[in-house]
Amino acid sequence: MRRHLNLLSNEPAETLLYTPEPARTAHIMTESFIIDARWIIPVVPARTCLLDHAIVVRAGRIESIQPSQGARADNPDLTAVNLPTHTVIPGLINAHGHAAMTLLRGYADDRELMDWLENHIWPAEARHVSPAFSYDGTTLAVAEMIRTGTTFAVDSYWFPDETAKAYADNHFRAQVCMPLIQFPNAWAKTEDEHLQKAAELHEQYRNHSLVRTAIAPHAPYTVTDDGFIKAKEQSLQYNVPIHLHLHETRGECEDALKDSGKRPFKRIDELGLMDHHLQTVHMTQLTENEIATLASSGAHVVHCPESNLKLASGFCPVGGLLDAGVNVCVGTDSAASNNNLDMIEELRTAALLAKGTALDPTTVDAHTALELATINGARMLGMADEIGSLEPGKAADLVAIDMAAINFQPMHDPVSQVVYASSGHQVSDVWISGKRLLDEGQFTQLDEVALRQRVQAWLERMQA
Ligand SMILES: [Zn+2]
Questions:
Q1: Overall average pLDDT of the 451-456 stretch
Q2: Cα 337 to middle of ligand 1, angstroms
Q3: Residue 239 has what pLDDT?
Q4: Is 230 helix (H, G, I), strand (E, B) or coil?
Q5: Which of 52, 145, 255, 389 is placed for a possible disulfide with 43 were both Cys, Cβ 3.0 to 4.6 Å?
Q6: What is the whole-number distance in angstroms between the Cα of residue 371 and the centre of ligand 1?
């Protein structure tokens, strides 16, 4: 969604409700075990579903995937997690969001975009956004994402030092994007200060096992040419991606054409940003030439179907992009414009919307939809050798979906059932790097009671 103009207050950081948990990452031991599942969808190799197979995990990595009986016999030292009615898929990758805005879920709905932003969201942010807001809101988002099968979030919000800490504290993978915007705000006053703070956070997390960084110039209409050029230099210096809202609405393109004589895409291309480091978000307005340029440049597209629908922003031509060879991923955008972070629902919406807009039911089939939310996300992140599929050597980022319920019967095709008949509510178990974060629907380390209390305090504060 379009957001982040000059609306944050310069008030001192809020500390009243801020009670960060001590860092837990150092205490988490990666584990070794066998997952014995009825069905496994590895995503790679493509269009595969394994029946009665097991995933052998050692020290947080997938060692092998083999028939269940052999796995148990070959690894008598390992305990087995029995999942007799479950389908195991790779952890889902939410390729775009603003996690802390989960605290604004349902705050203002069903409004025209600029009314929603200017009269509701931005004023609320101006009053409430602080380090504590970012930490608590991100923790709330992490809880929802774990509960619904997401194991990696791409996140862009104010106080990224706090959001990064929230991810690290909860053993959750993330690409934390450093915001860059030309207007002064509570995080930084100038584009140069944004970039300086980004460099500091890059240094802090450059060797972190779960949290990565990126630079996020907000959008063409909020960042100067100089800002984009410096962002590109910093991206090359640190070898990190650039994450950018681009062509979210027709109005964005029309305004730029009127003001500068060129579409935002052309400006970004001319500034030298259009390459495999660039992660473009939304892209509802694309010409055939722009699609061809995207394909030849290696730039990625993040499709946010439910946010685009809710804000009536337009339709990303996913089928055409995939046909052209562009890497397309899926993101929820923020819970303020979605209104949940359920990636299973999101990939289903992506599939249905692609069919509807192409008038072709073969566009984005079930396997492809799952790829958008897994291996394609990993490719965008430059992590396709680490996550995004269930293959020996990769990290054990695993999601189990319990398919015993009546709404899954009969099980003709587990891939179809996951994509077209399930939601995050059927997720039972989640592992990140071999650490079980969700055990039969229960958080293993996240303190849900304390989190609910903090969220309630924010609700009362915002309603005061
Ligand atoms: Zn966004």
A1: 98
A2: 9
A3: 95
A4: helix
A5: 389
A6: 21
